[in-house]
Amino acid sequence: MTTAVTPARPDARPSTTLAFLPRSLHGDRRRWHDGPTPVSLADLTTITRQVAAEVAAGMHEVRVDHTHRWSRRLHADPHLDVWLISWATEQAAELHDHGGSIGALTVVRGELTEWRWTSGHPGDHEVTAEELASSGPGLRRHVLGASAGVAFPLGHVHDVSNRRAEPAVSVHAYSPPLSTMSYYDVERGTLTRTRSELVEPGASPEGGQVRP
């Protein structure tokens, strides 16, 4: 069952969110330290926040499919994919990484729960002081409300789910566009890869279904 949540406003202006991207392809070598792409984690965070504001303003239609997670690709080029995703109650992405891509997400509305794998080592830049206090490797829980987000450096392993009664909506960006993803289990405090899969060009991230 698919239901419309927010139709795009008929007077919505065309998106200009991604107009700044060409500047990231010139001159600033520091951008490459995040991974094999000239688009940085900071760029991706900015993009997802800007597109999330567009969605909140009614510039993009959002639907919720209670059978399969709904998604729509809003932008694609050789360096970047941007996706709009909705999450009905209890819809979730399996524990996974993003292969050779970095990324970011911003929640538009509702609430998403991220379980993120951490090594528990002081050198792990994803580990906060509070997490270090719990010591050891494992999954750490992060609740992301409206306007909150997270960036995905190389090696970021997480799952994402909607644990609330109301649907959630989020914007995701990946650079370069996803081409492979690996999936994991955690047993006795050890992260184990169970399989890796190719992501076809234009296929929905996080295992969702693309809808028109």
Give the C-level CATH assignment. Mainly Beta
- The CATH superfamily name is Jelly Rolls
**Terminus-to-terminus distance:** 15 Å
How much helix, percentage-wise, in residues?
10-25%
Which stretches are poorly predicted, pLDDT < 50 over at least 5 residues? 22-27
Strand content: 35-45%
Q: Which fold name is given in CATH as the topology?
A: Jelly Rolls
Order of H and E elements: EHEEEEEEHEEEEEEE
Overall structural class, as computed from helix and strand content, comes to mainly beta
Mean pLDDT: 82
Radius of gyration: 17 Å
- Biggest sheet character: 6 strands, mixed
CATH architecture label: Sandwich
The counted number of beta strands is 14
The tally of structural domains comes to 1
What spatial form do the alpha-carbon principal axes imply?
Answer: globular
* Tally of DSSP helical segments: 2
Instruction: Please state how the strands of the largest beta sheet are arranged side by side.
Output: 9-6-11-4-3-14
SSE blueprint and pairings:
Elements: E1 2-6, H1 41-56, E2 62-65, E3 70-77, E4 80-87, E5 92-96, E6 102-109, E7 112-118, H2 129-134, E8 138-144, E9 149-152, E10 158-161, E11 168-175, E12 180-187, E13 190-198, E14 209-210
Parallel strand pairs: 3-14
Antiparallel strand pairs: 1-2, 3-4, 4-11, 5-10, 6-9, 6-11, 7-8, 7-10, 12-13
